[in-house]
């Protein structure tokens, strides 16, 4: 299986941040470690080693989704890494239907790169709104994708 490169991992670690205690993200989802959400509950505490393991486990899903979704489309390491970062954050189902993937698969790389920027919103208090952190992350993913 293809794996994310160091540049892509750095984007995920930077924008997810590391929290060893459970917290609610801006969208209200219980989260811990580097953006891990599965099985997280209030009051949960983990070690840095557990956070790293959860990240590696979560990356397996995102990497597999991107690898399967791009199929035989020519994909550089940076393109793959940027798409894994996006998939990690928005989920496999959203990634599979994204303009990023659709345009990448037809070789329209500038359009695919720009499509990262449209994934900067989250539902906060029942309202879909742009978040500065997501805007910054998408800009970093776009730059990595196009590099």
Can you describe what's shown?
The chain is globular, with a radius of gyration of 15 Å. With 147 residues, the protein is of the alpha+beta class. Helix 2 packs across helix 3 and helix 6 runs antiparallel to helix 7. It has a single domain, classed as Lysozyme. The protein is built from 7 helices and 4 strands; from the N terminus they run αββαααααββα. Strand 3 and strand 4 form a beta hairpin. Helix content is 56%, strand content 12%.
Structure characteristics:
Lysozyme, 147 residues, two-stranded antiparallel sheet, 56% helix, alpha+beta, 12% strand, 4 strands, single chain
Entry summary:
The protein contains seven helices and four strands. The chain has 147 residues and is α+β, with helices and mostly antiparallel strands. The protein has one domain (6-146): Lysozyme, CATH 1.10.530.
Outline the low-pLDDT stretches: none
What percentage of the residues does DSSP assign to strands (E)? 5-15%
Looking at the structure, the CATH topology is Lysozyme
In N-to-C order, the SSE pattern is: HEEHHHHHEEH
Helix/strand-derived category reads alpha+beta
State mean pLDDT (0 to 100 scale).
97
The main β sheet shows up as:
2 strands, antiparallel
* Biggest sheet: strand arrangement: 1-2
The helix content, as a percent range, equals 55-70%
Using only C-alpha atoms, the radius of gyration works out to 15 Å
CATH architectural group: Orthogonal Bundle
Shape: globular
Record field, number of beta strands: 4
């Amino acid at each position: 299986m293809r794996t994310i490169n160091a540049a892509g991992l750095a984007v995920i670690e930077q924008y997810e941040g590391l929290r060893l205690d459970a917290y609610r993200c801006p969208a209200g989802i219980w989260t811990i470690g580097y953006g891990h959400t599965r099985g997280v509950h209030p009051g949960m505490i983990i070690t840095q080693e557990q956070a790293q393991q959860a990240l590696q486990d979560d990356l397996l899903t995102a990497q597999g989704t991107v690898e399967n979704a791009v199929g035989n489309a020519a994909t550089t390491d940076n393109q793959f890494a940027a798409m894994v970062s996006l998939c990690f954050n928005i989920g496999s189902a959203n990634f599979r239907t994204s303009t990023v993937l659709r345009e990448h698969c037809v070789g329209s790389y500038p359009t695919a790169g720009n499509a990262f920027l449209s994934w900067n919103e989250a539902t906060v208090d029942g309202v879909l709104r742009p978040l500065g952190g997501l805007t910054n992350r998408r800009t970093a993913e776009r730059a990595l994708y196009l590099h």
